[in-house]
Amino acid sequence: MAALGWLTPRRRSATARSVLAGEASAEAARKSSQELEDLAYEAPDVSVEEPEFPVLGDDKAAAFFDLDNTVMQGAALFHFGRGLYKRRFFETRDLARFAWQQAWFRLAGVEDPEHMQDARDSALSIVKGHRVSELMSIGEEIYDEYMAERIWPGTRALAQAHLDAGQKVWLVTAAPVEIATVIARRLGLTGALGTVAESVDGVYTGKLVGEPLHGPAKAEAVRALAAAEGLDLSRCAAYSDSHNDIPMLSLVGHPYAINPDTKLRKHARTFDWRLRDYRTARKAAKVGIPAAAGVGAVAGGTAAAIALHRRRR
Predict the structure, then answer these.
(1) Which residues, including other chains, have CB under 8 Å from residue 209's CB and lie 6 or more apart?
(2) Which of 196, 203, 170, 200 is nearest to 37 (CA)?
(3) What is the largest CA-CA distance in the chain?
(4) Closest among 228, 281, 286 to 257, alpha carbons compared
């Protein structure tokens, strides 16, 4: 998958590579969204109480959702890695590493830069030489096998509230743009901004365009997409679990901390951002979040990954 690897050491300001990654992701997202608009989507049976926000019919507003631990329990890249292992893209020792990294991420609830760098390098080497169309097709299967049951119902309801208001909804993730696009389409969203891997004649080269869509690069992608779509960022919303996404959250007029890590929770409280945690029965102290976006249950992704590794030993 294009950029199956993502996170690089954390940086707080945008660099030329961040801007390049953001612009490349925005361009890829706009192209993929044209295809998604042609596909029918049957909305889930979710009864959302009419909130004050989002504003019905505001075509200058949109919503941007981080993926890992915000929309999906765990990391999309690790679930994808399990699917590739099942299809013999790599060996058992690689699966063990994926399982450990996923378990750490699920239990700690935060990203480890060394894990993410390792995942990035491994993934790029795995997909090098494969066709983009092949990985897209496999991504559809892996979504059904490992990802569909790990979508947070509460976050899904928030996204649906924006869709019901006539607004576009985008995933924004360091995961490969192809995988992110599959997930966005399955959820009935507008499209996805993700890490873009270089391909020549439809074949992955093993290199990235710019850098992984992480931290400041996400903010640059949102900024570029908003400019291309004619959006007013002060009327837009963004949702994330990670303090790494504070640059993206700070761009919009309606930032939300979803399942926040410690640093983001503290920042959100300081700046009076809205909070929602679906990992426990706690309810946000803030107002303006649809009541139907209730508490989601934690799936057994970590246990499944570890159990799979043990069966292979």
Answers:
(1) 20, 21, 24, 196, 197, 198
(2) 170
(3) 55
(4) 286
Q: Do 63 and 160 contact (CB within 8 A), yes or no? A: no
Residue 235 has pLDDT above 90, yes or no: yes
Residue 104 has, within 13 A of its CA and on its CB side, a CA count of 12
pLDDT at 211: 80
What is the model's pTM?
Answer: 0.69
Gap between the Cα atoms of 307 and 313, Å rounded: 10
For 229, how many CA atoms within 13 A lie in the half-sphere containing its CB? Answer: 28
What is the per-residue pLDDT across 79-120, written as a single tens digit (0 to 9) for each?
A: 888 888 888 887 666 555 555 555 554 455 455 555 555 555
d(CA 265, CA 263): 5
Catalytic residues: 66, 68
Q: 69: which 2 tokens? A: 């631990």
- The CA-based angle 247-67-282, given to 5 degrees, is 90
Please, what sign has the CA dihedral across residues 8, 111, 30, 138?
positive
Range from 40-44, 55-59, 148-152, 299-303 that averages highest in pLDDT: 148-152
Whether the per-residue pLDDT at 251 is higher than 70: the answer is: yes
